[in-house]
Amino acid sequence: MEFKDYYQILGVPPDASQEVIKGTYRRLARKYHPDVSKEAGAEQRFKDVGEAYEVLKDPEKRAAYDQLAQGRQAGQEFRPPPGWEADFRFSGGGYTHVGDFSDFFEALFGRAGQAPRSGWREARLKGDDQQVRIDIGLEEAFHGATRAISLTLPVIDDHGRLTRKQRDLNVKIPRGITEGQRIRLAGQGEPGLGGGPAGDLYLEVAFAPHPMFRAEKRDIYLDLPVTPWEAALGSRVTVPTLGGKVDVKVPPGSQTGRKLRLKGRGLPGKPPGDQYVILAIMAPPAGTRAARELYERMAREMPMNPRQSLGV
Length: 312
Fold this sequence. Notes:
Helix content is about 25%, strand content about 25%. The chain has eight helices and eleven strands. The radius of gyration is 33 Å and the shape is elongated.
């Protein structure tokens, strides 16, 4: 019996992470799957890849294999040492690859739950999950909505080849969703092979630019222009929010950049976000003689150096 280098079969290093091993297996299994590949030798490659993954995906099997693999190379004559498996416990069932495993595999792991022998062409492979980004409006995130979207997603055609096709979907946008969150559409991802289930489709939410508001998680920000007298004397002004207009008190002596908090006026949630109003003082133009004279009078009667903190 020849020793099999499972790392070499998958084309990964011995210290590869589980994520790398899983990703490599899925890529190779799809490449050589009977529903897709017409290459010579694809059947054997598919079986080898499935067997290698069956060992390397399982921490106990992998640890046992690594112990036996020390100093050995693929193709060398091999017999497992007597009693080598005493330090390991192998759980049966859950085989990824359906078909006949090699004598090498069965010599090591065959007693720990036999793999089904239904033939390699019955192997089922779950489709990959897909992720795409969708832009939504802040109003949709605030109120919730149902959106019709068109996406170009992978499908298996009548000849078993992976291609892409436009699909129209109705997507429910949850009320209070935040940027970066994902909406899961079960079974709407890449199709499975050999009758395997389809993967899931994940829609990553991004907020489209808004003419007034910007969002930071659940909090909403609005730059609010105010006149010099509204800021200096104090006033009540009307402010737009995603839930409608509200009246807000501007404290006397406010300056540009002052932040006013509207509790609970952000995106819904537990707890909801807040809306922050950032004041921006807008000076009217000196477009008439009277306006210019008024500014000159203000300069005389209310002298100030707004750059004093800068040392100038």
